Amino acid sequence: MSKSEQQYLDLCRHVLKEGTKKEDRTGTGTVSLFGAQMRFNLQEGFPLLTTKRIPFRLIASELLWFIKGDTNIRYLLQHNNNIWNEWAFKNWVESKDYNGPDMSNFGLRSQQDEEFNALYQEQMDLFKQRVLEDDKFAAAYGELGDVYGRQWRAWKTSAGETIDQLKEVIQTIKKNPDSRRLIVSAWNPEDIPSMALPPCHTMFQFYVSEGRLSCQLYQRSGDIFLGIPFNIASYALLTHLVAHECGLEVGEFIHTLGDAHIYVNHFEQVKAQLGREPKELPSLKLNEEKQSVFDFDMEDISLTGYDPHPTIKAPVAV
């Protein structure tokens, strides 16, 4: 059994058993606990869950989107990645330019009303098509504001300049690997109002020891069933990419959580997953010809040996 995956399954069990019932922004409801940590030895395999299929290509394209400093969903849609659509769609249907059918509270209504869900899917398809084909529309409504990519690559200063946090951290790892300042922050209080979704994974720190690169993420809020499996794999991939550029081996990914929660409409899915036996972790393969993190494309990243249990579907709380 994978020790890495067992940590995640143990977290699920702990939150179901000990979590506190809490209301939340989406109106769905959760059970939650405050403060948890998982440690993944990246030498033992790539930590992509096997007790349900996790779409690695979505994780990789989202991470490359962050690394590019992009904040518009067009790039994601071009790679058949729909994981940020709901937040952009929400901005569109709540705008003065939208004149279609009422889409208020579409997240919950689409789960509860089949007729409304069909209407919602139709409007979402139209929205995606316009983002892909209409430059002006994409600029206005495909844009998510000052989210992760902007903060990582173009943090705004009081002097009106920008800081490329990710590039500076990589250069510091190369020049001064013992630095205790290898930090990238996505939590910029001034920009929170202009973000479609304030950053859940708020900051990460690298650490070099004995030729290995480790990364610790602090995540203020974590959707355990849907979100956290993505976050684990995303930051593990980031660690591999940065280690590759810096000529280091990978060490650990440490995942520290603030509000770790399971949505009440995910209980049955979590219990189904807990009934499955973990399998061997896959291995990550990177294109050795690419040297810089910033040069990688989707075709340069692949997995081998991934043989998970089937997908378990669950609704996204928006």
From TrEMBL:
The active site is at C200. Keywords: Cytoplasm, Methyltransferase, Nucleotide biosynthesis, Transferase. DUMP binds at R25, R180, R181, R220, S221, G222, D223, N231, H261, I262, Y263. (6R)-5,10-methylene-5,6,7,8-tetrahydrofolate binds at D223, A317. GO terms for cellular component: cytosol. NCBIfam families: PRK01827.1-2, thym_sym. Catalyzes the reductive methylation of 2'-deoxyuridine-5'-monophosphate (dUMP) to 2'-deoxythymidine-5'-monophosphate (dTMP) while utilizing 5,10-methylenetetrahydrofolate (mTHF) as the methyl donor and reductant in the reaction, yielding dihydrofolate (DHF) as a by-product. This enzymatic reaction provides an intracellular de novo source of dTMP, an essential precursor for DNA biosynthesis. This is Thymidylate synthase.
